[in-house]
Amino acid sequence: MKKPMRDNTKIFKLNPKYLVLLFSVYVVISVLFIYNFKAEMTNIKLHKPGSSELNISFPFDSQTDAPKDTYSYHITLKNTVLFSGKLHIIPDDCVEEIKINDKVLTKSQPLTNNCDCINGFYIDIKKQLINGTNYVQIKVKNNIGHFGINVIDKTFYEKYIIWGFILLMLFTMNINPFLLFLKRKMLLVYHGHKSIIKIISIQIAALTITFIMTYLLPNQPIWFWCLLSQFLLLIAIPTTFSIYHNFNFGKIIASLWTVMLLLLIVNLKYLSHDLFSYDYQGHLDYVNYMVSYGEAPLSSGGWSFYHPSLYYRFAALFWNLLDTNNQLPEAFFFKSIQASSLLIFILYCYWSLKTIDFVFKKLIASHKKPDKKVIKTVYLLTTTAFLAWPSNPMTSARVGNDVLFYLFFAMSIYFTLKWWSTDQITPFLIALLCALLDIWSKTNGFILLGIISILLAYKYLKYIQTNKILLGIANLKYLYKFIAIICISAISSYYTFGERFEHYQKDPNTRFVVSNAGGLSNRLLVDRGWQSFTTFDVEKFVKIPFTSSIDDNKGRNSFWYYLAKTSLFGEFQLHSSFTIFLAHSLSFLFLFIIIIIAIGLITAFYNLKDNFPTIVSTLVMLAAMIFFRILYPYSSSSDFRYIFPCILPSLLLVALGMFSLARNRALLFISYSLFIAFVGIAFIFQLIFIFLVS
Q1: In contact, 172 and 8? CB cutoff 8 Å
Q2: Model confidence over 297-310: pLDDT tens digits?
Q3: Where are the alpha helices (DSSP H) in 507-576?
Q4: Fewest CB atoms less than 10 Å from the CB: which of 120, 163, 260, 560?
Q5: Closest to 617 measured CA to CA, from 416, 346, 434
Q6: 175: number of Cβ within 10 Å
């Protein structure tokens, strides 16, 4: 019988190793091309009244007080085809006039915010420029104190690299096989998730109708709540459906998930926007800036402006979607930011549960699995503990970029575990992409690159050991992955620390990680000596319900005490007598949870092949917090919120610990009892918290 013909046509025309080489050469050439053909501001001179001109560079600050007068800056600007013409000007104090090639620009473009010496203003001068050399003159009036200016080219030159990359991809691709491959994949996804796709389609259609109604009947606050509800349902319904049909014990988990969603939505309704947030006003100013300008601000422009911009872009976009006619009151703006955080938090919870489910599915499929009843009980307890975690209501609707960091961290961990178990390239690349987005959300995302690098290095060394080959001639697939990590690290470092490095060249006291650390109150300073890492007052941990970032008597000088307490309740305090009782109980029970985590960690080392990612994730996050405490000894920098995703691998270690205790029925019964008590009291704490908020 004749075998059916296989379609051996390759998607790419070149061998993968030549393809990698080609794209590497392209990146180098394109970077050099842009470096040579981008716009340049040279020969910058300052003209002081009654004195000779002075050669300067941007940013410029006089460093000393100067008389009230007008100062003129002359710039030679090389215009290129790549230059967008958009400039960001930050004057000290007021721009009075801008001339381009002796023509006054301010007559045709009246200036706004021209006296904003903190964030400045944006201006487009492309139409006024000629090809080649142009002469720009900016007159700035100094009202008092120092004088100066900064002019920044806001052209997004990287878009040319991206477009060139896409064109090169198309050039090296066999288009028809690629389209067939894409069609097969899409059909596979559709047939595998047909019901969810139909539900999402109906929801999108309903959302579209609501958007149309906001334009037909504008300025109606009801549309804000309709849109907000539909966006929440757009996330809530498909995730619930997915859990119900795809997870182990789906009916039970979907029921618990639904309860959590209802609690968090009620919490969103009643929780004030300025409660349980860190640097609230700074984050609010950042979102406002993004709404107004659509550009990431200078890190020096506000208290929280040093953060990467992704969360603030999303919050601004979400507000623009809800406020379609730009007429809603400010209170709606606050609620929309909280709602955007809740949407992200729900997705974070979903991907975390998906990770727990993935780990347990692997365990159920393995030969060395515990008793089925034990697996089911531990799985349900682990999942319920995650959903009932005491600090979830505080975190879910918080104004701040932490929550987006949590989401991409959880997603990256999920795909890292998939790559670890399957050794496929696709989940590895998705994990790296999530790591890149995580760094764009918050600098803490660099922890993920450390985790993935350690795991890859371990796999690489095991491969060498197993195949008994020399270090330098290992399989090319590892080389590609190391190159991918290096590229992601380089891109992330450039965009995260580039501006700070420029500031460092002017000011050696510039802080690279937490730019506003120099402005923190001395009241937040804590001990960073060895004793802060070797002490843990168990009695105080139970007796004192909540901790404080400014009160030494509430344990903040003990690193482990403060980390454990903030993992449960943050650094916030509730004054209801019943919540205080619950906090005492949870603190007591949490000590036993820590013991089970320790047992799980020891157990994990006996099966490194399966548990190494969980071990590395937990230990690297804890190591990062210790390093952070030493580098920035402030209580606000020692808060568990910086490694909040650590709850996920910690609960996986709890599961391993309980599996280990399952050998002794008495110990298993005790661990069950303590854990059920912890989960039950945590759930009651959430209910009381939401009741107090409402």
Answers
A1: no
A2: 888 888 889 899 99
A3: 530-534, 538-543, 559-569
A4: 163
A5: 416
A6: 9
Counting beta carbons within 10 angstroms of the beta carbon of residue 150, is it exposed (0 to 12), middle (13 to 18) or buried (19 or more)? middle
Quickly tell me which residue has 């004793």 as its tokens: 531
Handedness of CA 590, 595, 596, 601 (dihedral sign): positive
Hey, what are 74's tokens? 């002359």
Confidence class of residue 468 from pLDDT cuts 50, 70 and 90?
Answer: low
Q: DSSP characters for 432-471?
A: HHHHHHHHHH-GGGHHHHHHHHHHHHHHHHHHHHHHT--G
Rg (CA), the chain: 28
Q: If we measure between CA atoms, which residue out of 106, 350, 264, 309 comes closest to residue 683?
A: 264
Residue type, 670: I
In the block, residue with structure tokens 């006291």 = 509
d(CA 304, CA 286): 7
**How far is it, in rounded angstroms, from Cα 543 to Cα 548?**
14
Identify the CA nearest to 312 among candidates 335, 332, 341: 341
Tokens of 592: 């036993």
| Six-digit token string for 217 | 């009947």
Tokens representing residue 122 in the block: 């944006």
C-alpha–C-alpha distance, residues 224 and 567, integer Å:
34
- Cα distance between residue 557 and residue 563, in whole Å: 10
634 DSSP β-pair partners: 525
Backbone angles phi, psi at 396, to 5 degrees: -65, -40
The pTM of the whole model exceeds 0.85: yes
With contact defined as beta carbons under 8 Å apart, do 309 and 440 qualify? Answer: yes
